[in-house]
């Protein structure tokens, strides 16, 4: 089944306006995205490499913190939980997150690791190098248990839990199962955003989202024909044992498969693309909030496609506001 624009403008606007009533807890790998921007004017005399004269430094929330940022930008009240290192970059990142209006639920200090930091060096608007500083081992068991306990104690004040796993050690199988069991007691939906290697840890999730590359790592090349796509996704959803599997397909839009047997490929809108970085987080954030507001999976997918279209028209990892979502309808 192919779908798009299968909801009225009035329904679309009503759902987007309701995003502000949603309360979401994001738990996962908190990272710092650092950008060093400058110019290249010469080559190093020490080695044949470019010398970048840094003119601007910037740190943005990354990983689970970027997911939280996307949900917040769309209008939701957002809480964040996870780990940072015992370092200045972690403290500054928490300050940045709080200043943005995101609530700190349980951001614990793990002395066994630095705050995960991905430094991108950009010259003449082109990324020339990325430097990663991280330790990806699981957090010590006492910290895992403390995180799960504090998350469990706060579930009465949220409408959904998002588990954002980048395989940096915040979400172990033990932590995931404990949090999911707590969420089940409160009848809260759990939205999982895993890497392929950990996807099976989220069995029982309400929604599990993957991008195209992640989906293909788990199940092989994605078919081009929609009738083949229906079977392909249904089999993967059954293997992962989740209620809804959502896959973002880049320029092809997105597809979802439900436990009920419902499935749909929602094509992307024809737009000028400037940058796809972070668009997947924006897309699944909009899908999540739409579901929480009572949208059907198809309605949520249509809204998510609009959000993704807004995101890729911006340069860099970008968020989307409700106002931009509403304006995007009128541009179709």
UniProtKB/TrEMBL annotation:
Residues 24-322 form the Carbohydrate kinase PfkB domain. Gene3D superfamilies: 3.40.1190.20. Keywords: Kinase, Nucleotidyltransferase, Transferase. One of its GO terms (cellular component) is cytosol. SUPFAM superfamilies: Ribokinase-like. Transmembrane segments: none annotated. GO terms for molecular function: heptose 7-phosphate kinase activity; heptose-1-phosphate adenylyltransferase activity; phosphotransferase activity, alcohol group as acceptor. InterPro entries: Carboh/pur_kinase_PfkB_CS, PfkB_dom, RfaE_dom_I, Ribokinase-like. It comes from the Bacteria. It holds the Pfam family PfkB. This is ADP-heptose synthase, bifunctional sugar kinase/adenylyltransferase. The lineage of its organism: Bacteria, Bacillati, Armatimonadota, Chthonomonadia, Chthonomonadales.
